[in-house]
């Protein structure tokens, strides 16, 4: 996490971090330039993990990234609780390592400088190195620290944040020097002044991990009288034990309420566990809580929530529900029988008023019959109307085509040639007319046709042939003139 001025208040944010139903930690960002990493080794009780950031009124919560990694079941085992990283150090190194150097993507930080420690390093190939149960690569274990004074103990200590804190301490050792026959490295490991591990000697090119739990905060590696070399240690991990055993909402209730949220698109701030912790249960819910029992949803209030459609079956899956308020929505259909039965038994207070399309039990069948007849009749009438319109259009088109053919007697008598087509003799109500039809082969015929129509429709003169009408439909294009019984101008000129 890297702090930014998200809310414009220029105040370093502070918020709670929840893991499931439990408070993991309170995150405090002192400066925008400081990165905060929170790491925990946790065994979930269910098949999912919920991480929630809770606004406590001290700035807007934020997160940059979430990463999940799996570990083997036989390492970092605790009697109870989860392990929050207090520190992890690659001792003697100046480089920070993570994946792919570490198969589990553990962050190995460099140690804080201490004047009474001296760094050691060696070149160790991976192919000849035994990584041990905790899978520590040679590049991490090839460095170590020893006391600056060969005869002095190597002391590891820290200051706990709370005197009640309990720790798990993991010490990783390997001998990085190939000792000669007259060299010996042996030391006792003391815990708060008491002997814990006597006469310990790290093995060459092999990782030995020693771990212990408790409230002890001071460990000393003390050289024995038989040792010719000072004590060393290559890597160190310290974890704080956190009790995250508060149960989460029963899985069946979680599945049901999550389905309700999805079906209706509930806009409320429904995030994280529905019931736990109790201080942050979802809006509109009430839950029951018992010692070492899963919380159960007993009240669901979704009144005035803009719900529409049928009452989803998942509501009935909330088997401990005592109060259900669905008033003032747009729900429709029948109330599920399971809810009706519980309401009649008196185990459920059911409120569904002001849903105009929601049927009471026993009233939906008659309404359904009436409602289904109307759409069927409307559909049949609509289809018939469309068919009638189509038949009328077809008859009208055929009539017009037949009339065009009858006017000219199937284009039987040619009386002349025009600029864009042939002129035929025709009759309208026994009155002779001249019909000039457009010829597609005419080079400029269509333009001449358009020009002639526009001109004769606007200009009327005693010396010009009268225009009775024209046709411009698809391939049928023609003009209908007054018939000149004495022939055309070309005949008289010739």
UniProtKB/TrEMBL annotation:
Annotated GO MF terms: ATP binding; protein kinase activity
Residues that hold ATP according to the record: 436
Presence of keyword Transcription: no
Native organism: Phaseolus vulgaris
Domain Protein kinase residue range list: 409-494
Compartment(s) of residence: Membrane
Source taxonomy: Eukaryota, Viridiplantae, Streptophyta, Embryophyta, Tracheophyta
Catalysed reactions listed for this entry: L-threonyl-[protein] + ATP = O-phospho-L-threonyl-[protein] + ADP + H(+); L-seryl-[protein] + ATP = O-phospho-L-seryl-[protein] + ADP + H(+)
Transmembrane portions of the chain: 373-396
CDD domains: TM_EGFR-like
Principal place of residence: membrane
UniProt-recorded name of the protein: non-specific serine/threonine protein kinase
Pfam families: LRR_1 (PF00560), Malectin_like (PF12819), PK_Tyr_Ser-Thr (PF07714)
EC identifiers of the protein: 2.7.11.1
Record's bilayer topology term: Single-pass membrane protein
Gene3D superfamilies linked: Phosphorylase Kinase, domain 1, Ribonuclease Inhibitor
CC per GO annotation: membrane
Alphabetized UniProt keyword annotations: ATP-binding, Leucine-rich repeat, Membrane, Nucleotide-binding, Repeat, Signal, Transmembrane, Transmembrane helix
């Amino acid at each position: 996490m890297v702090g930014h001025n998200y809310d414009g208040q220029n105040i370093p944010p502070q918020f709670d971090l929840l893991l499931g139903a439990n408070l993991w930690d309170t995150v405090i960002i002192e400066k925008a330039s400081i990165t905060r990493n929170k790491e925990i080794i946790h065994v979930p009780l269910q098949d999912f993990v919920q991480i929630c950031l809770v606004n406590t009124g001290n700035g807007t919560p934020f997160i940059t990234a979430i990463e999940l990694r799996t570990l083997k079941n036989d390492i970092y085992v605790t009697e109870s609780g989860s392990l929050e990283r207090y520190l992890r150090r690659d001792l003697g190194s100046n480089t920070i390592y993570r994946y792919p150097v570490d198969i589990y993507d553990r962050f190995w930080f460099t140690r804080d400088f201490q004047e009474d420690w001296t760094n050691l390093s060696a070149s160790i190939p991976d192919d000849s190195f035994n990584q041990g149960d905790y899978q520590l690569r040679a590049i991490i274990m090839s460095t170590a620290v020893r006391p600056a004074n060969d005869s002095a103990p190597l002391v590891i200590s820290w200051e706990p944040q709370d005197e009640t804190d309990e720790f798990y301490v993991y010490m990783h050792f390997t001998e990085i020097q190939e000792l000669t026959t007259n060299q010996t490295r042996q030391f006792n490991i003391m815990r708060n002044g008491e002997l814990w591990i006597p006469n310990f000697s790290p093995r060459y090119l092999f990782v030995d991990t020693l771990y212990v739990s408790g409230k002890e905060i001071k460990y000393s590696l003390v050289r024995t009288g038989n040792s010719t070399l000072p004590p060393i240690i290559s890597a160190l991990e310290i974890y704080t034990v956190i009790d995250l055993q508060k149960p989460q909402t029963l899985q069946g209730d979680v599945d049901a309420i999550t389905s309700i949220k999805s079906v209706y698109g509930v806009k409320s701030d429904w995030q994280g566990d529905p019931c736990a912790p109790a201080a942050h249960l979802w809006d509109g819910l009430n839950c029951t809580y018992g010692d070492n029992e899963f919380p159960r949803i007993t009240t669901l209030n979704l009144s005035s929530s803009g719900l529409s459609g049928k009452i989803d079956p998942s509501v009935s899956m909330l088997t401990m529900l005592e109060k259900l308020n669905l008033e003032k929505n747009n729900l429709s259909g029948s109330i599920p029988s399971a809810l009706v039965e519980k309401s009649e038994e008196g185990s459920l207070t059911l409120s569904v008023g002001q849903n105009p399309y929601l049927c009471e039990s026993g009233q939906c069948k008659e309404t359904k019959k009436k409602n289904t007849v109307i759409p069927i009749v409307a559909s049949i009438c609509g289809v018939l109307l469309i068919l009638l319109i189509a038949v009328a259009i077809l008859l009208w088109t055929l009539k017009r085509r037949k009339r065009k053919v009858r006017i000219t007697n199937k284009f039987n008598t040619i009386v002349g040639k025009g600029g864009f087509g042939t002129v035929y003799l025709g009759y309208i109500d026994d009155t002779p007319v001249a019909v000039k039809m457009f010829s597609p082969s005419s080079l400029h015929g269509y333009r001449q046709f358009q020009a002639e129509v526009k001109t004769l429709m606007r200009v009327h003169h005693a010396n010009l042939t009268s225009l009775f009408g024209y046709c411009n439909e698809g391939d049928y294009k023609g003009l209908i003139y007054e018939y000149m019984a004495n022939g055309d101008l070309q005949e008289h000129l010739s």
